[in-house]
Amino acid sequence: MSRVEEKRKSDSPVEPASLAPAISANTGGVALPDSGLIGAQLREILTLSTAFERHLGRALSVNDTDLAAMEHLISHGPLSPSELARHLTISTAATTIVIDRLVAVGHAHREAHPHDRRKIVVVPTPASVRATFEALMPLIGGVASVTNELSAEDRRTVTDFLASVVGVYRRALEPPV
Q1: What predicted TM-score, i.e. pTM, was given to this entire model?
Q2: Among 42, 55, 62, 177, which one is least packed by beta carbons within 10 Å?
C-alpha cells in the first residue's frame, strides 16, 4: 500500500456522503457529477484557502484588495500604479486609494521610476515582505513537509492529477467559443 493510500485511510476527514446533502441542496436542481472524496477534499481546500487568505489579511491588517495588491507587488516587484491597477482589474483611481492604504500601514512606499522620472513605482517594504512570508510559512512548510513524505511514484501521480485539475480551471476561464 502506498503512502497516499495509508494517509487517505488515516486522515480522511470528510466522507463524500456527508457533503452530498449540502451540495445537492444548494445547486438549484442542477445535477452534479460525483467526484467522491477527492472532489470533497478539493472543495475543502478551496474553502480553507479562502479562509487562510482572510486570516492572512487580518494578520497583516489589510483588506482583500490590499492583500491582492501586496501579492502582486511581492510577486512582480515594483509596479507603477497603472500596472498595479491592471493586475487588480480596478480603476487607477481605486488603485491610488489602495496604495495610500498600503503606504499608511507601512506595507509599501512610492519611489521614483528607475527609467522615467515622470512616473513612480510602488515598492513593498522589506518588513512587509518578511511579515507576509512569516505568516505564510506554516502553510508553505506544511505543504512541503507533506509533499516530501510522498514516494516518487506518488509524487508523480499527485503532480499529474493536479496538472489536470489546473487544466480544468484554465479551460473553465476561457471565453465561450
Answers
A1: 0.76
A2: 177
